[in-house]
Amino acid sequence: MLPSLFGSQAWAANSRAMRNAKAIVLGEIEYVKPTTLPQYINIFLYGGPSELAGNLSNIEDINVNSQNAYPTNLLPSSGNTIVTANNFWGGGGNGGGGETMEDMIAKGRMSIYRTINRIKDDTKAHRPSIFSNLTGQVGEEDIRPGIATVLAAVLSANNVIGDNAVFPFVTFEGESVIFNGGDMDIPLVLKPVSLDQDLRNPYQRVNNTYVSGQNGTDPALLDSSVNTQIENLAQSIASSQNERFGKVVAALNKRSELNDFINGLDLDVADAAMPFDPDDPATQLVYPDTNFGRRLRAAVNLAANNSDSSFLSLGSGGLGGWDDHDSGVDANRYPQRVRRLMDALNVAGKHLEALGKTNVFITVYGDFGRNVNLNNSMGWDHGNNQNLYTVSGSGIAGRQLGKIVGKTQRIGQTKVNRQFTSPTDDSYQCEPFSIASMIFKYFGVQNPEVITGEPVIDENATNEWVDPNA
Question: Hey, which of 81, 167, 379, 447 would disulfide with 326, CB 3.0 to 4.6 Å?
Fold first, then answer.
């Protein structure tokens, strides 16, 4: 099986990636196919998002020790606070999505883990953090396969996804480390397909001006007779040399199949195709009219309409970057980004619930967290501790929603930049690699720590944040 799963270049014997790959092939990974396969939407916040929108529980202590003061309305002692009951960054249409988080928690559509805290090979640089978090491994960057690639190899080795699967792995963000191949080779059908927010058909010949007729690239005006002639000619030539061009014939057939599939699939992204709000049956769901909202709507529609789509990667394009070294507390910067993210996630959670798609789950996290000291540019520099937001998927075995897990404390000397939050001694905490373990576990891997070196996130953790003044 080695030649079918790996490239020809030999890996170093002590490479963790090699050990992981061998584990897949040699059966060290214990796999049990779930009764219902999950479908996963990965949202990665490039740049390293601050945790504060989802965790203001230490804000009074943070403010006293910060080089620069936080806005007064973030301080509960001011009496005019926008901080919500569970210490989210509220403020309605000018806030950081706190009210939406509260509603999603109360309705059992989201859980928040506030202590994703990296201890192993701790780094606060973008590149190694992105590679580690999207591969679920520590090691040399160029040899580590991404989470999606490892999952594809596991599912392929266990005959879970067949050769006829359509769009099993999809990226809405173009190239991503989560699909990094390393030296691992996987079947062509399991390699990622790139789609956009409009789900435009990448398999139409209309993109070729020689067959699109006189009206350019409008699919509705495609010169079908010319297209048919080219299809027949290609099939005729290839078929006459079937032994030599067998793969060409197969590719032509697959292109035609995928073209027909995506044209026929009900992927209307217009609001008219949306179901009604489970919380308000008289109101039709509408995603935010933002680039990110449209992309999330497309991803949810694809998952809902195509059970083959197992793994969809979104990134956070359309929201902006999360490297908030300056002006972080400005209403139109970090808080606005979080609010738009949460508004879209809220609709996605309701959308999936209305469709009864309880096997689709979403995770949201990033490179790392940030310091909590407001620097002299009124922003936050790179830190460590971050939040994991996880949405939907109530039908997945062991999954728990509606929880806020993790307690934090401020660490660092007063009035210096290097101040951050850290899990308290009695708090649940885990490495970012545990997120990858969780994903693998949901898809049927019984011992994901063989791949990541870390156990799955403990969804039974009970040390939720408790208001000390309650």
Answer: 379
The model's pLDDT over 410-424, given as tens digits with 9 standing for 90+, comes to 999 999 999 999 999
**Structural domain range at position 142:** 2-199+267-452
Please give the Cα distance from 121 to 138 (Å, whole number). Answer: 7
Residue 283 located in a structural domain: yes
pLDDT given at position 143: 78
* Arithmetic mean of pLDDT, 169-194: 88
Residue 143 lies in a domain: yes
- Judge if 245 and 375 occupy the same domain: no
Pull the structure tokens for residue 325: 């070294």
Give the whole-angstrom CA distance, residue 311 versus residue 439: 10
CA distance 468 to 85: 12
Q: How many domains does the chain have?
A: 2
Please give, one letter per residue, the 3-state secondary structure of the chain.
CHHHHECCCCCCCCCHHHHHHHHHHHCCCCECCCCCCCEEEEEEECCCCCCHHHCCCCHHHHHHHCCCCCCHHHCHHHCCCCECCCCCECCHHHCCCHHHHHHHHHCCCEEEEEEECCCCCCCCCHHHHHHHHHHCCCCCHHHCCCHHHHHHHHHHHCCCCCCCCCCCEEECCCCCHHHCCCCECCCHHHCCEECCCCCCCCCCHHHCCCCCHHHCCCHHHCCHHHHHHHHHHHHHHHHHCCCCCHHHHHHHHHHHHHHHHHHHCCCCCCHHHCCEECCEEEEECCCCCCHHHHHHHHHHHHHHHCCCCCEEECCCCCCCCCCCCECCCCCCCHHHHHHHHHHHHHHHHHHHHHHCCCCEEEEEEECCCECCCCCCCECCCECCCEEEEEECCCCCCCCCCCCEECCEEEECCCCCCCCEEEECCCCCCECCHHHHHHHHHHCCECCCHHHHCCCCCCCCCCCECCCCCC
Q: Are residues 271 and 330 in the same domain?
A: yes
- For residue 121, the model assigns a pLDDT of 87
Q: For residue 461, is it within any domain?
A: no
The mean per-residue pLDDT over the stretch 299-328 comes to 94
Could you tell me the CATH number of the domain that includes residue 50? 3.40.720.10
Q: What are the tokens at 370?
A: 């940030």
State residue 3's pLDDT score: 28
On the question of pLDDT at 232 being above 80, the answer is no
CB-based contacts of 8: which residues, under 8 Å, 6+ apart? none
Domain check: are 190 and 219 in the same one? no
- In the chain, the largest separation of any two C-alpha atoms, in whole Å, equals 82
The answer to whether residue 395 scores a pLDDT higher than 70 is yes
**Residue 141 domain flag:** yes
Looking from the CA of 165 toward its CB, the CA atoms found within 13 Å total 24
Sign of the Cα torsion 217, 222, 223, 224 reads positive
